[in-house]
Design brief:
The chain is about 65% helix and about 0% strand. The protein has about 300 residues and is mainly α. It folds into three domains: about 55 residues, Orthogonal Bundle (Arc Repressor Mutant, subunit A); about 130 residues, no CATH class; about 80 residues, Serine Threonine Protein Phosphatase 5, Tetratricopeptide repeat, CATH 1.25.40. It has a two-stranded parallel sheet with strand order 1-2. The longest helix is centred in the first third of the chain and has 20 residues.
Length: about 300
């Protein structure tokens, strides 16, 4: 965990993402839910802070270990996410990024086998990446979770991820990566979409929301709520995201999906079009446009 002590702030984590993960400023800005110009300023300030500190890279003192480790795990998490669902470009996946994040997470887990959150992050990556073979059709088109051929999921990764998660939970301290891994495991263990334990997923998203306060967690909780009690419950939860996720394509995409579930074709159509216009990912744009076109028939 040898790193510069200044590399634990969000701005410095963004700088590390560009240096280690090779992510662009736009991709990093998307991960942090801020405008690209804002992120560029933050990265610039982080560079200046590191340069002016005069502090060399080195192993952390015991008191700083936990904070440094959290920063490292956060960087790996964001690199994996960009590799699993690219924020821009022609391809849905960037396997070189997700693969490298998994490789580094394995290394950290080997060094810290008793750390529950390290295990949780590795398990999350494995359980999520197991679904990658079924996420893209023959033409490169995005296939949503509910429509995937689950026989194409990588059962070896699912078994490994489940084992790592089980070992991590035995530590007795549950963190946000472990909760996310538990959600991923619930999806992976369902042989059919109808078998998904949405009630348990909803409860876990509620716990994760209290842990993190992350609006993307609330977005996913809204989907789970819709699956458990109906689209009206999910749409109501989305109202609180009009501030933190205003203009974000994923908010529009989820609204479109829930309005479609509710039978409100016109509202769903409008939000699918808005989501397609806002995303910079070509596969996601094509998927959202296709959903809109189906509603016009």
């Amino acid at each position: 965990m040898c790193c510069h002590p200044a590399l634990t702030t969000p701005s410095a984590i963004a700088l590390t993402l560009r240096a280690v993960g090779g992510l662009t400023t736009a991709e990093i800005a998307s991960a942090f839910l801020v405008p690209e110009a804002t992120m560029a300023q933050r990265i610039s300030r982080a560079k200046q802070r590191i340069k002016s500190s005069g502090v060399p890279f080195g192993m952390p003192a015991p008191a700083d270990w936990a904070r440094r480790l959290r920063a490292v795990l956060h960087v790996l998490y964001l690199v994996f996410n960009e590799g699993y669902t690219s924020t821009a470009g022609q391809h849905l996946h960037r396997p070189e990024l997700s693969g490298e994040a998994i490789r580094l997470a394995r290394m950290v887990h080997q060094l810290l086998p008793a750390d529950g959150e390290v295990a949780g992050l590795l398990a999350l990556m494995l359980l999520t990446d197991a679904r990658r073979p079924a996420r893209v059709g023959p033409g490169g088109e995005l296939i949503p979770l509910a429509e995937q051929d689950r026989t194409c999921w990588d059962q070896r990764l699912i078994a490994e991820g489940t084992a790592v998660l089980t070992q991590g939970l035995a530590t007795g301290v549950v963190g946000e990566y472990q909760v996310q891994a538990m959600i991923a495991a619930l999806h992976d263990e369902a042989a059919r979409v109808e078998d998904t334990d949405w009630a348990q997923i909803l409860a876990l998203y509620g716990l994760l929301e209290r842990m993190t306060g992350n609006p993307m967690v609330t977005l996913n909780r809204a989907i789970a709520a819709a699956m458990v009690t109906g689209p009206a419950a999910g749409l109501q939860l989305l109202e609180q995201l009009d501030g933190p996720l205003a203009g974000h394509y994923r908010l529009a995409a989820v609204r479109a999906h829930l309005y479609e579930m509710a039978g409100d074709t016109q509202a769903a159509l409008a939000h699918y079009r808005a989501a397609a216009a806002r995303t910079t990912s070509i596969p996601e744009q094509q998927y959202l446009s296709t959903r809109a076109a189906r509603l016009q028939r």
